Amino acid sequence: MARASTSQGIGSTREIDFTNAEEVRAQRVPFVRTPLVPAARSLIDRLRNFFARRASPFRASAIAFAIDQAEGLSKSVGAGDKRVSLAPGSTTLVSLQVQLESYAGSAFHRAEEALSGLDTSIAQESQWLNQCRPKGIIDMMSAHLDRTTEEHKEAILASASNLKSAKDELTVFRKNHGLSDDVKPGKKIDMAVIGQLGILTVGEFVINSLYQSTQLQNGLVGGFSAALLASGVFILCGIGLGVGRQLRLKQDRGRWGGYALIAAALLVAGWAISLLSLARVAGAHGDTDPYGTAQRQIWHFGAILNALSDFTAFSFALISFAVIFLISWKFLTYSGGYLGLRSRGAKIDAAEPDLREKITQAKDHIKKFSDDFDHWLDEGPAVITACKSSIRALAATGDKVVTQFLSDSQDIEHAARLFDAYVRQNGGANIGELWVNIDKKLKEHLAQIRSKHATLVGDAETLCKREDIDDDSIAGARKAFAAKLAVASKELAKAEAAPERAQPTGSNPSVGDGIVTSKMKAPHARTAASV
Questions:
Q1: What is the number of helices (H) and of strands (E) in the chain?
Q2: 76 and 198, same domain (yes or no)
Q3: Which tens digits make up the pLDDT trace of 443-453?
Q4: Strand partners, 521
Q5: Which of 11, 83, 165, 471 has the most CB atoms in a 10 Å sphere around its CB?
Q6: pTM for the whole thing?
Q7: Of 280, 305, 335, which one is at a domain's C-terminal end?
Q8: What pLDDT, in 10s, does the model give residues 152-196?
Q9: Region (Disordered): which ranges (predicted)?
């Protein structure tokens, strides 16, 4: 049996009916022959009958016994109730007729409902027989492919429109602020950069601690405190240097603020390095207040040169400035080379993967349509065999339904004859006419049941005589659907190429993926050097 696709969302092929035929067949309720009125078989019923004062004269028929229990006929007659009349046209006899006709109607409706259910199932099997043939598969898949292609096109075009809007916004922002393509919009912060900054901070902290701890009297604890303060100052200087480099690109007077911030960051960094170096020298000479001494000497240029004269101090100064510039570079790399540029670049970063995802989904679905079509085409003969076998089984069930109705009719006839004999035995009128009316209704019902059953069997025989699938029709179907897949692929490729046709001026797109042979360009490039 063909597999049933479980994909959801765009392009779900679950609606291809015959792929889940086995599931539907398993959910059908089988017809089981049962009498209209089951015989009393429980222990309680048997005990009640055993201890009853009078044995019911209608135990030979479950239907007659049920009517007698409801009407209380034998009980009233046996007790000599004068209110019970068995004369022609009496209420008692009319009630008996109504009860028997009700059972006749129940038997008819039960059989009719069962045949209607079988007819529905055969119609469903007939639909599957049509669907699983090459032409049926092409018709279903083509309609579904067209609808799915349109859905994917709309999704790709909507995503491409969002990408184009984001790129246009970035282009306009660059133009309004006089920014070249060399000014980077920044990158998305990820775990890699967080790890890099963590390693950089820890390394700087260790270097600061070792630089101070060997000369300060309070040892590693003092070096830890000094390193903590120094690390914080250097990080702030690096960020300040990065912000200053962003501000210096402004076209108005704000650029002077950027230059001022750069100068301030460098001065603060130099002041911090000089202060640490002076404190280190003072501590090495046994000064109990090295930082107080360093603060007093910070304005003496000669003292600063003397403190930085040895190799260790000079290396520390170079490393510290390298760390500050590295922090500044990382800041610009991820926050962008200009204020406000990162937020606009982030929109493009969000739109790019969304468009690629839509394109990938479309490519995968085209492939899935091809695979499913080949699979269902190969499964077609097995589906036809299963459908014909199920149709024969349904027709055989129809025979059981008719047999059940005949059995129900005999039970009702038996109950009517028991009542006729009982009424005449107790001095009542001959109610043979009652049975004539019941027999007439049962024959009318039987004619309808037989007619419906004959139609059902005829339809089943016609369906089972249908020809099987030949190899030529399978080969032709493969060729025809391959052409439809090619058309769908071209339509999706056109939608994928829409961003390239709508490429804004001044952007640097990168190469993206294609569904078939697409040349779509991805959003803005970041190939220029750092600001």
A1: 16, 2
A2: no
A3: 899 999 999 99
A4: 511
A5: 11
A6: 0.53
A7: 335
A8: 888 888 888 888 888 888 888 778 777 777 777 766 666 666 676
A9: 493-531
